[in-house]
Amino acid sequence: MNAAQRRTVQARLKNQAEHYNAAQAKAAEQGPMHLITFWTNVNRKLAKDALESGDRTIADRLAAHLNDFYRAHTQ
After folding, report:
1. How many CB atoms lie within 10 A of CB 47?
2. What is the rounded CA–CA span in Å between residue 50 and residue 42?
3. Contact criterion met (CB below 8 Å) for 45 and 62
């Protein structure tokens, strides 16, 4: 990756971080369920993007984590 490509990637990541930070703050202002929905959607998108790239590791880890969370809070 050359310097121009690296700057483009860095700018995209910075914009994405700013977007997520603002969206998280807005969700938090609306209450805990909105914040839960925000993080659920972000993680689903992360898993979906990885699956579309042929990597199921993130989806498997997210599913396992959610299963563990469910089990920990239902017993």
Report:
1. 19
2. 12
3. no
Q: Are 56 and 50 in contact (CB under 8 A)?
A: yes
Over residues 17-68, the pLDDT tens digits come to 999 999 999 999 999 999 999 999 999 999 999 999 999 999 999 999 999 9
The candidate with the shortest Cα–Cα distance to 48, out of 35, 62, 34, 38, is 62
What DSSP element (H or E) covers 20? helix 3-30
Helix/strand number for the chain, H first, E second:
3, 0
In the chain the beta strands, taken as DSSP E runs, fall at none
Q: What does pTM read for this prediction?
A: 0.79
